[in-house]
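User: I'm writing a short report section on ligand binding and want a predicted complex to refer to. Could you take this sequence and iron/sulfur cluster and write out the structure as tokens? A short remark afterwards would be nice.
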Amino acid sequence: MTEKTVNCLDWNEIQSNSGFHKIACLKPERIRTTRLETELDAWLNVNQGAINYIDQRRDLLIDPCFQRPWVKSIIVATFQPRKIQSPLMNLPTPKPGEPYAEIAPYALNEDYHTTGLNLLEDLKTTLVNQCGDAQFEPNVDTGPVPEKALALCAGLGSNALNSLLYDQELGCSAHIAVMFTSLDLPQRIKQAPENCPNCGRCAIACPTKAFQPNSPFRVRRCRAYIANELRGPLDWNQQKLLGTTLFGCGKCTAACPSTISQAPLRVDPMQILNIPTAELARIIKNTALNHAGTTVIKRNAAAALGQQLSARQRRDIAPELIAKSNSPAIKQTIQNWIC
Ligand code: SF4
Ligand code: SF4
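Assistant: Sure. The structure tokens for the complex follow:
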């Protein structure tokens, strides 16, 4: 494996042929670890205990190159998931006036992990062709990597009020891919990214007030966190926060004036609970929902149903749903309904 110093690399040409929205390249010495540490501490101050890998991998999150001494360049890129005819359109839809559960618009595209990793693989091929073989480590929300902090260091956007990355053209809908490499590539940092204008529309749109202007993001109140990340049964308060969400949420993203967003998909939570698990697994395979898994998706359907039925309806239907399920998390979520 050769590790070359590459002085002449046309980043503009690489970006325009890459499928990425923007590409930047950071040098390890350019990363301000004190800034990463300050941001992580601010997060942990409010959200400690919510996400295991953030609590446990502080070393990698404040200094991503500390345990990667071979890294000479960090490529940071923004992208949107590839548009596809989503298999989620095959999920049962609710009749008008009946309970529903919503899937966030971004999940109706190709799984963003797949899009990002495929784009990184193509970029790796381009770099190997131009610069020679080297070591690479791609990441798209697939490990303890401070993606947003690196994107901010690289000037790919600014801090959005809802704690995502704000991009002038994509609003808050940009996903971030990171690739560590042993290639000594020329630095490429975007200058003076447009600041989030702080219009406050995302805060107004957030149904759970997970964040407000001048107050920190409280991840335990975020529907996307409860729906996608939290495992096990949901208590009644968590079900109230989750509301009608089946997967994701994205209401703050959709409210951002620069975001181009489609409508969420409404599905029938009762039919989702009754659909054979193998059939549900087949439909959500290759979508972002696969990362949550069938148990979490059915648990969220139970929560959405519980929020829209009357106390009497909940009391009538709960025993049958509990008897039908073989998942302790789903059974307990239904048992936690206030009947
Ligand atoms: S994803 Fe939903 S719940 Fe979470 S911050 Fe945005 S609007 Fe609020
Ligand atoms: S909605 Fe307004 S405040 Fe929120 S991220 Fe977009 S521009 Fe910033």
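A remark for your report: Residues 201-335 form one domain. The chain has a mean pLDDT of 93.
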